[in-house]
Amino acid sequence: MRTRPEAGFTIIEVLLAILIMGMMLTAITQLMTAARNTRDSVHNMQETQLAGPAVLDIIETDLRSIFTTGLPRAHWFKIEDRVSGGLDADRIDFISTTDSLIARIEDRERPRRSDINEVGYVLRRSPRNDEFLEIYRREGFGVDREPFIGGEYTFLTDQVKGLDIRAYPEDGRDIDPLDEWDSGSDQEDRGGLPAAIKLAITIELKPRIDRESLDLANLRKRTVTYTRWIRLPQDLRFAEGQFPRLVVPPSATTPTDPATPPAGSAAGGTDPNAAGGGGARGGAGGAGEDTGSASDLGKRSGG
Predict the structure, then answer these.
(1) How many CB atoms neighbour CB 44 within 10 A?
(2) Which tens digits make up the pLDDT trace of 169-210?
(3) Cα–Cα distance between 236 and 48 in angstroms, integer?
(4) Which residue has the higher pLDDT, 185 or 278?
(5) Is the pTM value of this prediction over 0.70?
C-alpha cells in the first residue's frame, strides 16, 4: 500500500518567511529609533531654550532694578573676570530693589522679605562633570557694609559652558568693552556705573537620559550661546553726591535754635510772626499745621 505524504513547509519556504520577518523587524526598529531621536532632540532644544533665556531674564530683571541712591560709589556695581576649568565664569554683583526671593524666618515669625537686597551671580565647576559649570544667584537680605560678600545661594542651572560679561563705559559703536568693572575704582573709565552691559551665556544640550549619548558629531551643534544687551538708565550714572533729591525747604519762621522759643510765643504774645500767638489783629490762634505765616493763621482763625 502506498502511504500519503504528510503536508508541511519546505526549507526554502521557512527561510523565506524568516527573511521577510527580519526585514519587517529591522524597518520597525529603525522607525522607532528615528522617532526616539527626534523626541530627544526636541526635548534637548526645549531644555536649552528654557534654561538660557530664563537665566538671562532673571539677571536682566535684577539689573533693571539696580539701586545706587544714598550708597557709597564703591558699593554700586562690580564685575570680575574669572575663569574656572578653562571656561569663562565671570561674576557680577550689585544692589537691586527686586523683592527678595528667599524669605527670612526668625523665631517662628512670619516670613519677611526685603525690598532692597544684595544680588550677585556666580559660577562654579560642576561636581558631577568637570566639563560644565553651575550658575547660582546670590542674595543678601538687606544691605550691609560689604554688599559683595555673603548671602544665600540659589541654584539656577547646570550644563553651562561659560558666562561672559562685558561693560561699556560709554554709549557708541566704537567703544571697547571692559572685562572687569569696579564702581569704587579711581580710574575714570571704571568708576560709577557703566553705560551698557553685554551678557553672553553658553549652554550645551542636555541629554534626555544621563546614559544616553547625543547623536550630534559637531560640537557647534551641541552648544548654544544666548546674548543679551542691557543699557542702564542715565539717571543712575550721576557722580556721587550729584543725585537730584526731593527735600523739604526750611521755613522762614522756624527759629535756628529749636530749644529757644520765639519772642511772644508765651501766653498772649503780640509778635505776628510767632506761631500760635494769635497775631496783633487775630484772636487766640491755635497751633495748626498750616504752612502759611502766623499772621495769616491768626487772620483765618480769629481776625
Answers:
(1) 20
(2) 888 778 888 889 987 777 666 667 888 999 999 988 765 554
(3) 34
(4) 185
(5) no
Q: Does residue 280 have a pLDDT over 50?
A: no
| pLDDT (mean) for 4-15 | 79
Spatial separation of the C-alpha atoms in residues 103 and 90, rounded to whole Å? 27
- Look up cell 530749644; give the residue: 259
Positive or negative: CA dihedral 56, 62, 66, 70: negative
CB 140 within 8 A of CB 117: yes
Element housing 129 (H / E): none
Give the DSSP letter string of 244-298. Answer: ----PPPPTTS-S-TTSPPTTTTTT---TTSTTS--SS--S-------S-HHHHH
Residue 61, C-alpha cell as written in the block: 530683571
Task: Render pLDDT for 44-89 as a digit per residue (tens, 0 to 9).
Answer: 666 656 788 889 999 999 999 898 877 888 888 999 999 988 899 9
Residues forming beta bridges with residue 203, ordered by sequence position: 160, 224
Determine the 3-state secondary structure of 221 from DSSP.
helix
Angle, alpha carbons 101-137-104 (nearest 5°): 35
Q: How far is CA 67 from the centre of its chain?
A: 12
Q: What is the mean pLDDT of residues 286-294?
A: 40
Backbone angles phi, psi at 188, to 5 degrees: -65, -35
> Do 192 and 239 contact (CB within 8 A), yes or no?
yes
Whose grid coordinates read 516670613? 111
Q: How many helices (H) and strands (E) does the chain have?
A: 3, 10
Regarding beta strands 91-96 and 77-80, do their DSSP bridges make them parallel or antiparallel, or are they unpaired? antiparallel
- Collapsed DSSP state (helix, strand, coil) of residue 35: helix
Q: Is 187 left (phi over 0), alpha (psi -120 to 50) or beta?
A: beta
